[in-house]
UniProtKB/TrEMBL annotation:
This is Uncharacterized protein. The lineage of its organism: Archaea, Methanobacteriati, Methanobacteriota, Methanomada group, Methanobacteria. Residues 611-634 are annotated as: Disordered. Residues 101-133 form a coiled coil. Keywords: Coiled coil. It comes from the Archaea.
Length: 634
């Protein structure tokens, strides 16, 4: 809190309004308005009580009002107010407004506390209204929350829905103050890393993201202004750290953020820019920053990141193919561009308000995941197992909290517990792979490639190049087209986005491009690795779940029946509507990263004029919000 600043204090001078704002220790800003229109503004080093009749500000006010102020006598006769009368009124007003400034200084704490309470109340009313509108929007358009997120991701860009969703869930874990999770987008130059980074931030409320590229002096100023916990729950964006030089430049800052992420506190030592007037020495200030922020960044240089950075979060690589990116730029024009802008300005902002509402009212609720042991078995072989013990369960909690309106609550000993579902755990397993960072579909396709193709033979490639064999004859190299042909013959793999999968396998170093097809620009790929990948599916084992229910009783005191009844209801009602509902996807949409979500495969509707017809904006007065909170009192 800066005690040298006082917000504008206002007073009427006839039909004009004078406001005085204290902007510094000896800095006052005077402004004269009429009918909310500014007449003039002036900065002065004297407070109102110190001004005399000959001061510049008094003369400017007098000149402005002179000859313009009239009054009516009791007889109804209208006459001008003399300059002397106006001057007296100005001096009286300056005395009153100085008293208002002094009163604010004396009662600053209570005044600002009241103002903060009023602003918070207004903010809560606004986000509550918009959160209800968002839930109504889902009902009206017959779409589930997780499918809505995928739909928004598709409109953001081409081919990066999965990575964008991963980034959002990481940021929600930080924002909901479950666990700060760093989100690192790593890859080669020009692959579209910043697109993923930007998407993840756009999906997150504005009050969750802050610029992380600031100096220690800037952090000190922010701490003085906003308090020592101003970074708590924030996502600090470092943007693109292009290489070793950028990383080295910001490593001290990253080290501070690492301390905050892990310990929740860091101490700064700041040397003053100006020497002391008496001693000539530069004073050293010590200040503390508290809180648990996370970091999001992009970089081409993964070797410069130590394990302390890598194990603090999740890293992804761009997956979008050239064709997907081309389709985005090809179609993102005219009516489609306008529709995209409307969706991001209207529908996405409702989603932001919904997230903010959850934080304000539910972020401190405790979450019970009855499938914790199944989740632990899923990530047991991950590279950073000890870090994963807190990482993946936290991501599941973030998904559970995001679906708070559709999750059951246990009330036990006057305390509320939100219960995670199989879906929450499976969503994390579908999006995150603790070993390879790939989807289950990518794992399955790669393991089939190991069966279909042998180690690369230059002789076979040469035979193809001179026309002795065809692509379909080859058994040591392949193209996207050939893999599409082979997988189309496997019923369970039909319709997969093979282009995206091949790109993912290449980014993960499992295959590589060695040449181009004859008379074309398509890549020829070969295997780089020959060991099968383990499945990333999560298995819900009934025995493991039942054993963990007994542990829940030991940890929380909740009898197993309290949670098992919820599991039974979940199993009974495990079908859910995962369709795209009444919404329309952009022309560049790709395969959903959620295995259980069917795609909307219809073509965009055509109007009589031949243009695209999109769903209209949601009604201004939607249906009353349907609250689906279910409670189980144990």
């Amino acid at each position: 809190m800066n005690t040298n600043i006082i917000p504008p204090q206002k007073i009427k001078i006839f039909n004009y309004e004078l406001s005085v704002e204290k902007k510094g220790r000896k800095k006052y800003y005077y402004q004269l308005n009429k009918d909310e229109a500014k007449e003039f503004g002036h900065t002065h080093d004297k407070r109102p009580i110190e001004l005399n009749e000959t001061s510049q500000i008094v003369r400017r006010i007098l000149n402005t009002l002179s000859g313009k102020i009239t009054v009516k006598s009791d007889d109804g006769i209208e006459g001008l107010v003399s300059d002397e009368q106006i001057k007296n009124k100005i001096m009286q007003s300056l005395t009153h407004i100085d008293q208002a400034l002094e009163g604010y200084e004396l009662n600053r704490e209570s005044i600002e506390l009241k103002q903060a309470e009023e602003e918070k109340e207004k903010y809560l009313e606004e986000i509550t209204k918009k959160a209800d509108e968002f839930q109504d929007f889902l009902i009206i358009n017959n779409i589930s929350l997780h499918t809505f997120i995928w739909y928004i991701c598709e409109w953001l860009s081409g081919g990066e829905s999965k990575n964008s969703m991963i980034g959002l869930i990481c940021h929600l874990s930080t924002y909901f103050k479950i666990k700060p999770v760093w989100f690192l987008t790593l890859g080669k130059a020009g692959e579209g890393k910043s697109v993923i980074d930007n998407n993840s931030q756009v999906l997150t409320p504005n009050n969750a993201v802050m610029n992380g590229r600031i100096s220690e002096k800037a952090i000190y100023r922010k701490t003085i202004e906003l308090g020592e916990r101003y970074l708590d729950g924030k996502i600090l964006t470092m943007k693109d750290l292009g290489g070793s030089r950028d990383i080295e430049k910001w490593m001290d800052t990253l080290d501070r953020y690492k301390e905050l992420t892990t310990d929740g506190i860091t101490e700064f030592e700041l040397v003053s820019d100006t020497p002391d007037e008496l001693t000539g020495e530069r004073k050293t200030r010590f200040f503390i920053v508290k809180g648990n922020p996370s970091v999001c960044l992009t970089s081409v240089n993964t070797e410069s990141f130590d394990d302390q950075i890598m194990r603090r979060g999740v890293n992804v690589s761009p997956e979008a193919t050239d064709e997907q990116v081309k389709k985005f730029y090809h179609f993102n024009k005219g009516l489609i561009k306008e529709e995209r802008r409307r969706i991001l300005n209207d529908e996405l902002l409702l989603f932001h308000a919904y997230i903010e509402y959850i934080y304000e009212y539910y972020h401190d609720i405790e979450i019970i995941n009855p499938y914790w042991t199944c989740l632990e078995k899923w990530f047991k072989n991950s590279e950073y197992y000890k870090s994963s013990l807190s990482l993946y369960p936290s991501l599941v909690e973030a998904v559970t909290l995001l679906h708070y309106h559709d999750r059951e609550t246990i009330i036990f000993n006057d305390k509320n517990y939100l219960v995670s579902t199989k879906f929450d755990n499976k969503l994390i397993a579908d999006l995150f792979n603790p070993s390879q960072g790939m989807s289950e579909s990518s794992v399955r396709v790669f393991n089939l490639l190991l069966k279909w193709y042998k180690p690369f033979s230059y002789d076979e490639l040469e035979a193809y190049k001179i026309g002795d064999i065809t692509l379909r004859d080859a058994d040591t190299f392949f193209t996207v087209g050939e893999v599409k042909y082979k997988t189309s013959r496997v019923k369970a793999l039909s319709g997969l986005p093979i282009g995206e999968i091949i790109n993912t396998l290449q980014n993960n170093g499992l295959i590589e491009a060695v040449d181009k097809v004859n008379r074309g620009n398509k890549n020829i790929y070969v295997l780089s690795e020959y060991e099968p990948l383990e499945s990333s599916n999560i298995i819900f084992d009934d025995d493991m779940i039942n054993d963990y229910l007994e542990d829940i009783e030991y940890m929380y005191g909740i009898p197993p029946r309290g949670v098992s009844d919820i599991i039974i209801r979940e199993n009974r009602n495990k079908t859910s509507d995962n369709s795209i509902g009444d919404l329309k996807l952009p022309p560049w949409f790709s395969k959903s990263p959620l295995v259980s979500v069917p795609l909307y495969t219809g073509s965009p509707l055509k109007s009589a004029e031949g243009g695209f017809v999109y769903r209209p904006s949601p009604p201004s007065s939607p249906l009353k919000s349907a609250k689906n909170n279910l409670s189980e009192e144990v």
